[in-house]
Every structure is written in C-alpha cells, then in structure tokens.
Amino acid sequence: MVVAHPIAPDAVAGEAGGTAFAAGFSAADFAWERWQEQAALAYRAGDVATAVRAWEQALAVAEQHFGRGDPRLAASLTNQALVMRRRGQVYQAKRLFEEAFTVWEDSWRWIYLMTPGRQTSRQKAQSDRLATYDDTVRAWFTALAERGCAATAMLERFDLLPKDGLAEWLELKPRRLSDLRKLLAAVLLIAPRPH
Known about the structure:
Blueprint: H1 13-22, H2 27-44, H3 48-65, H4 71-86, H5 90-112, H6 121-126, H7 135-158, H8 165-172, H9 179-188
C-alpha cells in the first residue's frame, strides 16, 4: 500500500475555498479527484509512469478516507488492478479486481445515503428530516454505479479499457460539489484508452 501525501485543507482552497468544505467536500475528496484526473490524463497521453504514481496516491486516499461501499474506492481498486496486471502481478491484480467488485456491490448503501446537498434554512424549518433523493433518482445513480462495475468487469475479463469516460468527465464534471460529482468521478475516471 502506498502512503498518500498529507492532505491539508488549504491545499484545495483554490477550487472553492471554505464553501467546498461547507458543501460536504473534504480535502480527501478533492485530493482523490485530482489524483484520478491526473492519472487518467497521463494514461490517455501514454505517460504510464505518471498515471501509476497518481493512481497509487488516489488509492491511498480512498483506503484512508472513504468507506467500504464508496464507488471511488472501487474505481481506485480497479485502476490499481490494471497496474498490477500490466506489471505481470496476476495474483495481486485478481485480488484487487475481486475487492473492487465487492465495493461496487456494496455501493448501494453509499447511494442510499446520498443527499441532494445542503438544505436552506427555510427547508430545515419545514422538516426535521435530512433531504434525500427519490427512488427514481436513486435508480439512476444505481445504474451509473452499475456502469462503473461493468467497466471493472470489462477490464478484468477482457482487458478492455473504457472508451470515453475521461472525455465525458471533462464535459460533464458538475460545478456543484455534491455526492453526484463523487459518483460520476468514480464511474468516469476508470483508466481511459490511450490516444
């Protein structure tokens, strides 16, 4: 296991400052997203060494800061499994793929706990319950997580890299800091095909 660099809140202040943390994004959330983006961009450009280092850092952040059902952990395990397979470490790759599948299967819990974001003071006054997504939206999120699991399966079974996840991420990356952004990053930042 790789030890991640310490994450300081001021290291991510440039993106959204205090509002990011108020919206439920932690320094670990930003660090993981940045490592994953850097790795995907490097891998697509053919810079495997940079991608490997960034994926190792992303995995370390995910293992230290995210729960067992967090799709970002599944994405990191998938990318690390790819690295191990490419290095010829088949047993380690198989173990990491199995772990990734387990996390993807457990992601329903993470999805169930997703919230639309901070409530306004008026919303809080009207209800003592935390705002949650309805069943239709949760079904869409679950389908998105299943897409991530399918990408892991294609890598594990056929060594087939996702085609357009990085391009989709760069196009769709939500400006709003939310659980949806975390889920999209997990699904779309699995190793892209090199150009």
